[in-house]
Design brief:
By secondary structure, the protein is an alpha/beta fold. The protein has 3 domains: 166 residues, FAD/NAD(P)-binding domain (3-Layer(bba) Sandwich), CATH 3.50.50; 118 residues, no CATH class; 106 residues, Polyamine Oxidase, Chain A, domain 2 (Alpha-Beta Complex). It is 34% helix and 21% strand. Helix 4 packs across helix 9 and helix 7 packs antiparallel against helix 8. The mean pLDDT is 94. Bound molecules: flavin-adenine dinucleotide.
């Protein structure tokens, strides 16, 4: 074993949003960090890639957390983190989170304007007006509580005491809400089956689960914040967020090594001591943070079977089939919303391909495409088992991808007539692509809570291995760029206090 002397106080495995947020905030407090990233670029599921003059978002493209409105409190985490780092990531406001196109000619604009959004629902379901208002008020209550708390770690006793003594009633109320489900709460107020299906698709839009399986607290964060902090798109695309965080890490002296895959977390007597890279080099630190999924961290990077994570501990979310299209600009009307969700049949909305997610981010930032062109980014859930039997370089794989892409484009013509003829560039990604480029077990969107599990059962940042910490969507609070940013903040906050240099409050 030869140590390469490239040690730091903290080694971070992966330059996803969770890992970079933790690294940048620790480095800002003088805790030295060294990030190893398998890819040649940062961001993982929130990165951009360029092809033939287009800049595509690899995954995420609907962003919370960039509001400037201080009433959005600690939920404006991107604004607050970048302010702390002194890094500018300009964004453009998007007035509609999602334009839903649902069965039975049911369309809804989930607008920034809360009354306009509720008004659309009330117009369609006038008999449910009080139920609609009551349910969405529940989400606002969660939002109101969380946005008034400072961001910190639930494992940090000092932080918990500060929140408990500063906001005793809100803390008790939130603790009770942690055990509630979004769908069961909706059923206290709403009876109409079609409206309950809409509540399901609101959950599914980001949680990839129906509303009953989705914790109320997560719903309160996402579905209320769209009306307060709002949705804001980073100029230059999704990759502008991790690039900004990288600038933050390096500004304070941290280091990021790209094209550096970690193959093992080195343990000694149940304690993390460092990492081994794929090139065989070893690097040591006082603590290690893993931004990989819970399955990759404990079943691949750690060889000691005592830490193995059982398959059924969490529900494994599906992966994705994605289309990255460069299209002739005239096919997209100027007043088109940027983000859309299409469901043709409620019976299959939660089956592979049953819900089509669809974005045209060039409507907000024309520089992402050559002049006169637009980007169409469409995706559906898919399972790796449906693709594993293919040879990735083979004709049969190519044909299966083309067939599915044609089906999705044909369905999308419902809202964009002429799309199939307007496509000039087509890049297709299956769960195999996701496993390879996002470096995620089975290309999965990550572990989901099982119905009945409370949000507090999501792993926190500490792990069963001493001095090994976890960030990202396998940890509390879960999937989504703003959620994993929270996990990075809470992890940095815990470690910084442990190292004697507590984070200052993010303002
Ligand atoms: C198709 C799709 C659409 C989405 N849409 C949205 C959206 O609109 N809005 C939203 O908020 N969220 C969205 N999400 C979810 C969001 O992108 C993710 O939840 C979030 O980006 C995950 O961040 P993370 O920090 O957990 O890590 P990841 O993004 O998974 O990053 C982990 C990083 O670690 C690296 N890594 C892993 N293992 C190793 C190793 N052994 N050695 C070195 N490096 C390693 C990976 O290469 C990667 O860069 C979407 C996700 C997908 C896939």
């Amino acid at each position: 074993m030869t140590a390469s002397n490239q040690s730091a106080d903290v080694i971070v495995i992966g330059a996803g949003i969770g890992g970079l947020t933790a690294a940048a905030l620790l480095q800002e407090r003088g805790v030295s960090t060294l990030v190893f990233e398998k890819n040649r670029y940062p961001g993982g599921s929130c990165s951009s890639f360029k092809r033939e003059g287009y800049s595509f978002d690899a995954g995420a493209s609907v962003f919370y957390g960039f509001g400037e409105n201080d009433s959005s409190g600690s939920l404006n985490l991107h604004t607050r983190v970048f302010r702390k780092l002194g890094i500018d990531v300009p964004t453009i406001h998007d007035p509609v989170q999602i334009h839903y196109h649902l069965p039975n000619s049911f369309t809804v604009l989930a607008s920034y304007d809360r009354e306009a959004f509720l008004g659309t629902l009330i117009n369609r379901f006038p008999h449910e007006e009080s139920g609609i208002r009551g349910f969405y008020r529940e989400l606002d209550d969660v939002y109101d509580i969380i946005s008034s708390f400072p961001a910190g770690s639930l494992e940090d006793v000092i932080h918990l005491l500060a929140v408990g003594s500063g906001y005793p009633l809100k803390a008790i109320s939130l603790a009770q809400k942690c055990f509630r489900s979004m769908g069961k709460t909706a059923r206290r107020y709403i009876r109409d089956e079609e409206l309950l299906r809409f509540i399901d698709i609101e959950a599914y839009s980001w949680a990839v689960q129906d509303a009953v399986s989705t914790p109320l607290v997560n719903a309160g964060i996402c579905l209320a914040d769209r009306h307060y902090g709002g949705i804001n798109y980073p100029l230059g695309g999704a990759g502008a967020i991790p690039e900004g965080l990288c600038r933050g890490v390096e500004k304070f002296g941290g280091r990021i090594r790209f094209h550096s895959a970690v193959s093992e977390i080195l343990l000694e007597n149940g304690e993390a001591r460092g990492v081994r890279l794929a090139d065989g080099s070893e690097h040591y630190a006082k603590a290690v943070i893993s931004n990989a999924t819970v399955w990759d961290t404990f079943n691949r990077l750690i060889t000691d079977l005592r830490y193995h994570v059982e398959k059924d501990r969490f529900q494994q979310a599906p992966s994705w089939f994605q289309l990255f299209l460069g299209v002739e600009g005239s096919v997209i009307p100027a007043d088109f919303s940027v983000h859309h969700i299409l469901v043709d049949d409620w019976q299959s909305y939660n089956q592979p391909g049953g819900t089509i997610y669809f974005s045209a981010p060039t409507l907000l930032d024309a520089s992402l495409a050559p002049p006169g062109k637009h980007i169409v980014h469409a995706f559906v859930t898919s399972e790796i088992d449906m693709w594993q039997h293919f040879d990735r370089g083979g004709q049969a794989y190519r044909e299966a991808k083309e067939r599915l892409a044609d089906e999705i484009i044909a369905k999308t013509e419902r809202i964009l007539p002429g799309l199939s003829k307007a496509v000039e560039l087509k890049i297709l990604a299956t769960p195999l692509t996701h496993e390879r480029y996002l470096n995620r077990f089975k290309g999965s969107y990550g572990p989901l809570l099982k119905p009945g599990q409370s949000i507090l059962q999501k792993p926190q940042n500490r792990t069963p291995v001493k001095n090994l910490f976890a960030v990202g969507d396998s940890t509390f609070p879960g999937q989504g760029v703003i959620a994993v940013t929270y996990s990075g903040v809470s992890c940095a906050s815990y470690i910084a206090r442990k190292f004697g240099t507590p984070l200052e409050e993010l303002v």
